[in-house]
Amino acid sequence: MRSIFWHKNPYDLEKSEVLFRNKMIDNMLFQYANCKEYKELMNARGFDEEKIKSIQSIEEIPFIPTLYFKHHQMDSVPFDRFLTRATSSGTSGNKSVIGYDFKTLWRSLGMVLSIGRVHHLWSLRPCHYIILGYEHKGLLWGSPRVEEKAVAKTAYGFTFFAPALSRTYALKYKDGEYVLNLDEIKQKLIRYSKGKTPVRIMGFPFHAYWLLTKMKEEGISCPLPKGSMMAFGGGWKQYYTQRADKETMYALVKEVLDIPEEMCREFFGAVEHPILYCDCPKHHFHIPIYARAVIRDVDTYEPVPNKTPGLLNLLTPMINSAPLLSIMTDDLAILHDASECGCKINTPYLEILGRVGMEDITTCAAGAEKLVQAVMMEDAE
Questions:
Q1: In what order do the strands lie in the sheet with 147-149?
Q2: I need a labelling partner for 337 at 20 to 30 A (CA). Which of 142, 146, 169, 206 fits?
């Protein structure tokens, strides 16, 4: 396997084990040599070049909490080598700012091409796109001086899986802030339901659930043309306990938009771990060859067996521009054996249980949720 980032089978996990470990060691040595802050952190933990080279298991690689990146800028290449930058913040709070150089973006391209092919995202048929999220400010890979939410870049990137006839956003950027406009989205759905062109909808699940519930209550049915797709990304975040279960969500999508469950997709990722996780036909997030997941005990941080809940530690050697090879998220998760799924993908999969509730963390989805709540309060008055 010459390159895990351009391998045709993104789930050939078993055959990539040795290569993955070697790539992780190479990345760790690069970060150690080129990022002063990372070198200081590793030295403080007793890691030098020789100890890095002697690592036998990826579980031994020291992790950095995502919260750390929200308070510290850590780059491993000069600023002028960044082609773009992405942030994790919402409308307020601390944020991670991650720059991407050419090598990182080239690896990402291989990943997107492969994941998109396996999950049937690519199509030559033109469609209308509706983004239930933030409006993209400019070029996909624009000036590195322009910071933009990672979810905005991801949603905009989604519109390249099939030719875009139009793009309509629920959160429009106006006068320095994002303004929620779900009424326009509703009118576009009504109009598109009368045509023959497929519609691809991408965005936060809480936006979709609230909008479709409101349309259902108003007696509005918009059966979209065959080939239309619903894709969710960004999660429910700290409102996870109020989420609709997947069966309820997919039934609502079918009832209001006539999009069948097999045409619904869900994505998972983070600006500090920009690996594209796309759910399988059973709606599970299987681990691709570009990454590994370790579930750790919430008190000891020691790895726990599969099927045991704990803190989610994500690893990847894909990022060249920052020391993101092993990050500890604020998510609680369970790693399941592939045999528990029943689909054809033969790799373990993640079950995301929710967030641990750190008050310091404000996510981009959390900021969007506040806008939704404001509109809901207005409707109730």
A1: 97-100, 84-87, 147-149
A2: 206
Give the residue among 286, 260, 303, 270 at the shortest CA–CA distance from 350.
286
Torsion angle in degrees (nearest 10) through CA of 243, 246, 248, 252: 100
135 touches 178 (CB < 8 A): yes
CB contact at 8 A, 223 and 193 = yes
High-pLDDT (> 90) share of the chain, %: 55
* Residue numbers in the chain where pLDDT is lower than 70: 1-2, 89-93, 137-149, 235-242, 357-381
| Model confidence, pTM | 0.86
Q: How far is CA 257 from CA 34, 170, 201, 245, 326, in A?
A: 51, 17, 11, 18, 40
φ, ψ of residue 245 to 5 degrees: the values are -70, 165
CA atoms within 13 A on the CB side of 226: 0
DSSP annotation of 283? S
Residue listed under structure tokens 């790539």: 23
Q: One-letter amino acid identity for 184? A: E
Of 169, 223, 232, the C-alpha closest to 198 is 223
CA distance 329 to 83: 26
Amino acid sitting at position 160: F
E strand intervals along 84-237: 84-87, 97-100, 127-134, 147-149, 164-174, 177-180, 199-203, 229-232
What DSSP string runs through 37-85?
HHHHHHHHTT--HHHHHT--SGGGSPPEEHHHHTT----SS-GGG-SEE
Determine the angle formed by the axes of helices 150-158 and 364-380, rounding to 10 degrees: 80
Q: Which residue has the tokens 């409102």?
A: 239
The pLDDT of residue 265: 94
Three-state secondary structure of 178-216: EEECHHHHHHHHHHHCCCCCCEEEEECHHHHHHHHHHHH
